[in-house]
Each structure stands twice: as structure tokens, then as C-alpha cells.
Amino acid sequence: xDTLLALLVGVLTxxxxxxxxxxxxLRMLFGVxxxxxxxxxxxxxxGRTLRAAPPIVxxxxxxxxxxxxxxxxxxxxxxxxxxxxGLVAFALVLLYRTYAxxxxxxxxxxxxxxxxxxxxxx
Length: 122
What we know:
This protein has helices spanning 2-20, 25-46, 71-102, 107-116. With 122 residues, it is mostly helical.
């Protein structure tokens, strides 16, 4: 299971880096999304993927009876997913405004327009 997840992390990282190297800003955003998912998987795998008991202490006891799962990686990944959704929504709005203003998301065209001084005024 860990080997499969490690391969998946490698594929996601490679695809994310490939998309980050593209000229379109939308593809760059997709690359960031893939890289964040790869990092989330790394954190989840680092916390071990065992089938242990949930971290719930039964009533009347002060400690769990059996080996319990570590909830910290899951909490970190859940927090990262929520923050990632906010970041993606904000970036999509910025990309939409950029496309509405300039008519393109190509980085080279946008940098040429900013050198000409046309990039003033969102």
C-alpha cells in the first residue's frame, strides 16, 4: 500500500512540475493543485496507513485499550485541504479577472503588455 502511494506521489509531483513549467497561468494553477495533493499524500503516508482503532477513549477509561490511529496527520491534511480550496478559489478569481482584462492567460503575452504599460488598471 505504501509503495502504491509513493508511486502516486511521484506521478502527482511530476505532473505538477510539468504543468508549472507551462506558459498558461491556468495550467500553472493546476500544477499547484497537483503539488499540494502530492504533499498531502506525503503527510498522510508519513503518519502511517495502518488499520488501527479510532482515537476514541471509551467512557470510564482514561486511555484507549488498543493501539490507536494517529489523528495528527489526518488533521493536518484536512486543514491543508480547506486552505487549498480557499487558495484555489482566490486564484481562479484572479485568473478570471486577468483573462477578462487582457483576453489571455499566456505569461509571455502578459509580460509584454506590462512592459508596454498597458497592464495598469484592474
